[in-house]
Design brief:
The protein is an all-beta fold. Helices cover about 0% and strands about 45% of the residues. It has one domain (about 25-94): Jelly Rolls (Sandwich), CATH 2.60.120. Strand 4 (about 50-55) and strand 5 form a beta hairpin.
């Protein structure tokens, strides 16, 4: 078996990611923002609710437990919105 693909029950570990700060983000039900580039590369951990990130005509839905890497720092960027009738709670590592 290839070392890049863990077998059943094996631990998979990424290279270290620097994290000095974190932000807790609460997106209200029905909330969102229009297209905008991100100020820097972000790792987003979705804790509750659902959020949609729309970029380049593609929509990605973040659900509890999902990790989203947001790195569109140039161009038109992305838009986002909550995709259920509930708020979304996320931890963002800038």
């Amino acid at each position: 078996m290839s070392p890049e693909v863990p077998g059943p029950g094996e631990l998979s570990v990424s290279a270290p990611l620097p994290a000095v700060t974190a932000m807790v983000v609460r997106a209200p039900a029905g909330g969102g923002h229009p297209e905008q580039p991100e100020a820097g590369r972000r790792l987003v951990v979705v804790l509750s609710g659902e959020c949609e990130v729309i970029t380049g005509g593609e929509t990605v839905v973040g659900r509890p437990g999902d990790l989203l890497l947001v790195e569109d720092t140039t161009g038109i960027g992305h838009a986002s919105r909550t995709s259920t009738g509930f708020e979304a709670l996320m931890i963002v590592f800038p």
